[in-house]
Design brief:
Keywords: NADP, Oxidoreductase. The structure is a single chain. By secondary structure, the protein is α/β, with parallel strands linked by helices. The protein has one domain: Rossmann fold. Helix content is 44%, strand content 15%. The protein is built from 8 helices and 7 strands. 44% of the residues are buried. The protein binds NADPH dihydro-nicotinamide-adenine-dinucleotide phosphate (NDP). NADPH dihydro-nicotinamide-adenine-dinucleotide phosphate (NDP) binds next to helix 1 and helix 6.
Length: 244
């Protein structure tokens, strides 16, 4: 399916690496003007080197005030991808208050905040828009050592639905993609061990993890008019994991 986002302005968080970076580049290839937000300047430098039309914004999204300041002049945005997240593995009994707060700050609170900033503009312009949150299969299934991460993604799924409910009347659609494991930096952190990977792979009917581009394709679909009646869904990109 070919997508055209010509004339649209898109903002992608966590665009320095992995799924976010590939999404930013794909949106630019499809004609969108892209604002790429992440916290490592070197990643933004290399992204702009790869695609000169991308506008970089360097900020730690876990910092509410810094995010507010960094995005205040970002201008009109039609398409938002809330992709940035952190995942730290810890047995439940070892989870600390700091780890809990940092994860919720980035994976949930920043999604709420960035969506507020962008959606206020969409509503004021009356031109509608589309938001895609990058959730996970871990929002709906327990994964050992991922207590906090699973909880953030469960919260994100419900946030997606409530924002969809409230912004629908303004023709702003809000959906999520919920991928299985993808071998990005984050994926490698949890699933490089072949025995552990096998335990997950045996639960995926298609018998493999997802490729970055497969997640990007689903994000582009949900951003595009090809899904213009789809609102408030949490779309598995998981080879059937959640069906079992
Ligand atoms: P990566 O770790 O490869 O990339 C995450 C990106 O987000 C990095 O550029 C990172 O920057 C940025 N980021 C993280 N925290 C912040 C922050 N506080 N402020 C600004 N930017 C930040 O992750 P993936 O590409 O794998 O993951 C992307 C999304 O997909 C996440 O929401 C994740 O939960 C989800 N997902 C991933 C899966 C996987 O197996 N990989 C499976 C299911 C869902 P920096 O490197 O500088 O920290």
């Amino acid at each position: 399916m070919d997508f055209s986002f010509a004339g649209k302005r898109a903002l992608v968080t966590g665009a320095g690496k992995g799924i976010g970076r590939a999404t930013a580049l794909a949106l630019a290839r499809c004609g969108a003007k892209v604002v790429a937000v992440t916290r490592t300047q070197a990643d933004l430098d290399s992204l702009v080197q790869e695609c000169a039309s991308i506008t970089p914004v360097c900020v730690d999204l876990g910092d509410w005030a810094a995010t507010e300041a960094a995005l205040q002049d970002v201008g009109a945005i039609d398409l938002l991808v809330n992709n940035a997240a952190c995942a730290r593995l810890q047995p439940f009994l070892e989870v600390t208050a700091d780890q809990f707060d940092q994860s919720f700050d980035v994976n949930v609170k920043a999604v709420l905040h960035v969506s507020q900033i962008v959606a206020r503009g969409m509503k004021a312009r009356g031109s509608g828009g589309a938001i895609v949150n990058v959730s996970s299969q871990a929002s709906k299934r327990a994964v050992r050592d991922y207590a906090v991460y699973c909880a953030t993604k469960g919260a994100l799924d419900m946030l997606t639905k409530v924002i969809a409910l409230e912004l629908g009347p303004h023709q702003i659609r809000v959906n999520s993609v919920n991928p299985t494991v993808v071998m990005t930096d984050m994926g490698r952190l949890g699933w490089s061990n072949p025995d552990k990977a096998k335990s997950m792979l045996t639960r995926i009917p298609l018998g493999r993890f997802a490729e970055v581009e497969e997640v990007v394709d689903s994000i582009l679909f949900l951003l595009s008019d090809r899904s213009k009646m789809t609102n408030g869904v949490t779309l598995p990109v998981d080879g059937g994991f959640l069906a079992c």
